[in-house]
Amino acid sequence: MKNNSLIKFLFFSILVSSLYAEEDIKATNHLDSIVLGSGCFWGAEKGYESLLGVEEAISGYSDGRGVRPVYREIIKFKNKFNPNNHAEVVKVIFNKNLISTEQIIKKYFESHDPTQLNRQGNDIGTQYRSIILVRNDEQKQIAENLLSKFQSLLSLEGYGEIKTEIKTLEKFYEAEEYHQDYLVKNPNGYCPDLSTGVVFEDKNNQLEINNNDLYAGKHILVIESEFCPYCKKLREDVLDSYKGSIPLSYRKANQLEGLKISTPLWATPTIIFLENGKEILSNQGYLTKIEFYRALGFFKLGNSEAFNVAFNEGTDSRYCKEYELFKNTPEGQFIDKLSGEPLFDTKDRFNSKTGWLSFTRPIKGSVYELPDYSYGMIRTEVRSKSSDIHLGHVFDDGPNGLPRYCINATVLEFVPKINPKNTSNSPSA
Asked: Are 62 and 41 in contact (CB under 8 A)?
């Protein structure tokens, strides 16, 4: 009797387990995957993970013969042009209810230059080849159809033959852990923007970019790509708070018509400093706030007294021309010459008869102080919190027992208080 009960229980357990297993299978039927190679897998992985409906993107290696699928092997010089080397690829796992195979492959073609053979930009070798590795005939048919359509679009724009291979996936090897989410782990990395600018959508529906404003005067131009975590980080850490007088604009690499730019745009973000539409200075990759403002300082100030003050802890000449301009201004604020951030208010200004601008206090939170032991003296240096440039020193000999902030006028600009009858509020000097 006990044996019969035991048998019935085991049978019931197996039945229930099988039912739940069937449910699990049904529950995962919405997931699919495809393996894509388009050059360095760091940026590609991040791009696919940004798509709505993509569950996971995994960097790895595939399509090799006789080469160990590990990074230190595929990068060896002997394998650089080895046709049997593995390609750097990304396995994209996606929810078919939210995003289709067609949408992913469209994004794949749009996000790199498939006409380049065994390279993407400065990344050269067979490991960087353009390749689509499909799981079944359905994916293969979709890929072939889209390749044909994209070839037509590229040809209209003067591009050559697409070099992308379409094969059936045999084996995917997951890359080393340090390659997974590489651009998240390495904030000073770069995101290549190697796209052609050609897209599947109707060009008439695309936003036209007018660069006419960039042809006159000085401008800061930031080149971004669609899926670039360091572009976002640069905005958040540095650019979103920028209030300087030199205009700041954003573009993609295919939106630079008419501009004279010499820097290869293989990495984003790239910052271009323009004067009259021509590149003067540039930087590829993420910049810290201090690095950005030093580059801007060189661009805006050049080899000047102001640059020496700002970045070499120099001091204005007594009664310099900027001091004479600023000592008796109407009501307003003195701002950081680079960041545009308010530093001092005229209501706190007083005539110390020293030949330098003097204030009893800065605008709250605008500066920071630190000890200065240079030239055998003990002083307290004052620096701008927004740009980190040197401003001057603070002493304890101000009026009525207040401090005296002795500030160099050359690193300041003046913004008058807004008059309701005159809304002009442009910085001077």
From this structure: no
Residue 20 CA, chain-centre distance (Å), reads: 46
3-state secondary structure of 304: coil
Q: Where are the domains of the chain?
A: 28-185, 210-287, 311-416
pTM of the complete model beyond 0.85: no
pLDDT confidence of residue 27: 41
Pick 311-416's CATH classification: 2.60.40.10, 1.10.3210.10, 2.170.150.20, 2.40.30.10: 2.170.150.20
Positions of E strands within 63-168: 87-95, 119-120, 123-124, 130-134, 165-168
Q: Tell me how crowded residue 175 is: count the other CB atoms within 10 A of its CB.
A: 24
Q: Do domains 210-287 and 311-416 have the same CATH topology?
A: no
Both tokens of residue 71? 């990074």
231 is catalytic: no
Q: One-letter amino acid identity for 170? A: E
Residue type, 140: K
Q: Which residues contact 371 (CB under 8 A, 6 or more apart)?
A: 378, 379, 380, 381
Nearest-angstrom CA–CA distance, 238 and 234: 6
Catalytic one of 40, 231, 320, 406? 40
Divide the 429 residues of the chain into consecutive groups of 10 and give the mean pLDDT of each group: 45 40 46 94 87 91 96 94 96 90 94 94 92 96 95 93 97 93 73 81 59 93 84 92 93 89 85 96 93 97 96 95 96 96 97 97 97 93 98 96 97 84 58
